[in-house]
Design brief:
By secondary structure, the chain is an all-alpha fold. It is built from eleven helices and no strands. The protein is elongated and about 105 Å long.
Length: 275
């Protein structure tokens, strides 16, 4: 006979229905666990759904290569009526005078050059006329290297300091370098070291103002561009001086470049974000 465990702490197994016990009674089958749970709500602990991945959109803009320095936009290298009005207007005036000098009668052009010359004789008589008038002409014409330097350098300087301040730098180089070269000529004539004809030497153009503007602009550029530009400019001017073809003008260029370098404390205070 099969033994069943009974007693304290031991639960008797429920008899199965359909089974005849030893005393002749029929056992009642215990309800199945599934049947017991049919009427009980089941609590499911389902794992939360995984978040949907965020859509990745491709950037339609082209990726620019990483460079150690930013490249300027080409249009910013040239003067514009709204961005650099001083340089734009001055360039237009120089273009007109250069066109006139190329097409007009050479005798008339030479006479205008003489009337605009900042030689000693004119500076003594009418300095307020010849100093601005001499800056209306480009020595060598519109294809001169100083014409290209004027456009690029004055545009960059005006974008960083403003039109009035760029004009001050240009005029300071033009006026001070002119006086620094012509006054010694006058004194040398008085001392008898130069002939009287030196008082009427033809002197006009924008080169002194351009040299001063280059010197001032170098103070606003990053070092990797400042020192090569300043070194190359000074080397070129020293080479012209060594050629001894026009020593007074060549000294004037070096003096004007020095004036521009001396203006670094001022232009750096004036500097603003380029527009």
């Amino acid at each position: 006979m099969e033994r069943t465990a009974t007693g304290p702490g031991v639960a008797a197994s429920p008899p199965l229905s359909g089974v005849t016990l030893a005393d002749g009674t029929a056992a009642v089958q215990a309800p199945a666990i599934a049947d017991l749970l049919d009427g009980v709500p089941r609590q499911r602990h389902a794992a939360p759904p995984a978040p949907a991945p965020e859509p990745v959109f491709a950037d339609p803009r082209p990726t620019a290569p990483l460079l150690p320095f930013p490249l300027p936009r080409l249009w910013r290298l040239l003067p514009t009526p709204t961005g650099t009005p001083f340089t734009f207007g001055y360039t237009a005036v120089l273009a007109v005078t250069s066109l006139f000098a190329a097409l007009a009668d050479p005798a008339l052009v030479h006479a205008l050059y003489q009337d605009s010359s900042t030689d000693v004789a004119h500076l003594v008589r009418m300095p307020g006329v010849v100093l601005p008038a001499s800056a209306l002409w480009i020595a060598g014409g519109v294809l001169s290297p100083y014409a290209l330097a004027f456009v690029l350098v004055l545009t960059a300087l005006e974008r960083r300091t403003g039109g009035a301040r760029a004009a001050c730098v240009f005029l300071a180089g033009h006026v001070l370098a002119t006086l620094a070269t012509e006054i010694p000529v006058g004194l040398a004539v008085l001392a008898g070291h130069l002939p009287p004809t030196s008082l009427h030497r033809l002197d006009y153009g924008i080169s002194f103002g351009v040299a001063a503007s280059i010197g001032a602009l170098c103070g606003l550029l990053p070092p990797w561009l400042r020192w090569p530009l300043l070194t190359l400019t000074a080397a070129e001017l020293l080479n012209d001086l060594a050629a001894f073809e026009d020593p007074m003008t060549n000294w004037g260029h070096l003096i004007a470049l020095t004036i521009g370098v001396a203006s670094w404390p001022f232009v750096r205070r004036w500097q603003k974000a380029p527009r």
